[in-house]
Amino acid sequence: MELKEFFIYLFIMFGVTYFIRVIPFVAIKSKINNQWMKSFLYYIPYSVLAAMTFPAVLYATSSMLSAFIGLLVAVVFSYRGESLTKVAMLACIAVFLTELFL
Amino acid sequence: MKIFRKKLHYIRGLKAGIPIALGYLSVSFTFGIMAVSYGFTWWQALLISAFNITSAGQFAGIGIMLTPGNYLEMVITQITINIRYSFMSISLSQKVDDKFKGVSRWILGFGTTDEIFAVSMTEEKVCRSYYAGLITLPFLGWTLGTLFGAILGNVLPDRLVSALGLAIYGMFIAIVVPEMKKIKAVVYVVALSMAMSSFFYYCPMGQKLSSGLSMSICAVFAAVIGAFCFPVKEEE
Is residue B121 less than 8 Å (CB to CB) from chain A? Predict the structure, then answer.
């Protein structure tokens, strides 16, 4: 990739990501009252993360079986209310251990 | 006395950021490895992380960067993947104290991520010093992790790299599952979004769309359905 091309992309990415975070933060000073909008805002983080995770997670490691077991471990421990860090680490360890036996 | 209190808030924020930073280390390590495997140099990977601090947007972004001139797709993808930050910023704007305004919002607003947002929401009122402290270590973890991944990635055994591939998804799951447990409607929204994204992934027609675009279609559609079928009650 050309260097110029890289910096154009970097600039676009940074610009979009930065303003998406900061503009609402700076601009909104009053409470949002629209019920529908509030509901939509509430659901979108979860629907984004869900679409991003599945089915991509199944192909994130070198075998689908280890990825599936990692996924299972992540679901079980997050269901039990463990922290993000702990869940991520345990899922990785589960993948590692599974692949030792493959 | 006032400076002392500010310092205390900052340190409290720093401490709250430690687990986030540790989680980011492993995820950004994976990002560094992936960026290099895509043909980026270590400093390019580092710049991308330092300017964006966002997992999903960066992973999708480097895929788009491989094709020259895909600027519009980059804009659309970044908007759709990262639009959730707008919603978090809106929520955060309702929770900060009176002094957290003006320039401090322009600067500190940069550090809002899923995890930082989630932790800051546990505060009664979010003050500038606390938020600055909260951002510090995760930012360092994110950038340093990327650097280490980009430089050390190839010397790590394949088994370890493969295992770390699950870190980012582990984190996503840890954000979504507790909410599914708490609120039934989230289960339906998540299931719908996953079903749609599987359809796009496996169906030849859906494969024609870029992953960023199909992801946003799934996410927006599922959230719209959720908002119509299960409107959130006032107090939430």
Answer: no
